[in-house]
Write a structure and sequence with these properties.
The protein has about 90 residues and is an alpha+beta fold. The chain has 2 helices and 3 strands; from the N terminus they run αβαββ. It has one domain. Helix content is about 35%, strand content about 10%. It has a 3-stranded antiparallel β-sheet with strand order 1-2-3, with no helix packed on it. The longest helix is centred in the first third of the chain and has 21 residues. The relative contact order is 0.17.
C-alpha cells in the first residue's frame, strides 16, 4: 500500500481514539462537595497557573480535544494538570 494511505489511516484512527476517550470522560476532573475543580491530593479548590511548554505541546498533539490547563492547590502546594495524581511539583 501507499505511504500516504498508511499515514492517513493512522491519523484518522488517532483522532477517533481521542474522540472516544473524550466521550468516555477519560481522566475527567475531580469534583467534590465545595467546588467543581478539586485537588487530587487534598480535595481543596485549585487555582490556575501559567502553562509550561509541555502543556502546549500535549494540547497541540491532541488537537485541543482535552482541557490541558495547569493548576495549583493553595492548601497542599500540589501543581500540575487536574488529573495528574502521581506527580508532585513541576515537570
Amino acid at each position: 500500500m501507499d505511504v500516504f494511505l498508511y499515514i492517513s489511516l493512522i491519523l484518522i484512527l488517532y483522532v477517533i481514539l481521542l474522540i472516544i476517550l473524550k466521550k468516555l470522560n477519560f481522566r475527567r476532573k475531580e469534583k467534590c462537595n465545595n467546588c467543581n475543580n478539586c485537588c487530587p491530593e487534598c480535595k481543596e479548590p485549585l487555582e490556575r497557573v501559567r502553562r509550561i511548554n509541555l502543556d502546549y505541546f500535549i494540547n497541540y498533539i491532541t488537537f485541543q480535544i482535552f482541557d490541558f490547563k495547569r493548576y495549583r492547590c493553595i492548601n497542599c502546594a500540589w501543581e500540575g494538570r487536574r488529573w495528574e495524581k502521581a506527580f508532585k511539583g513541576k515537570l
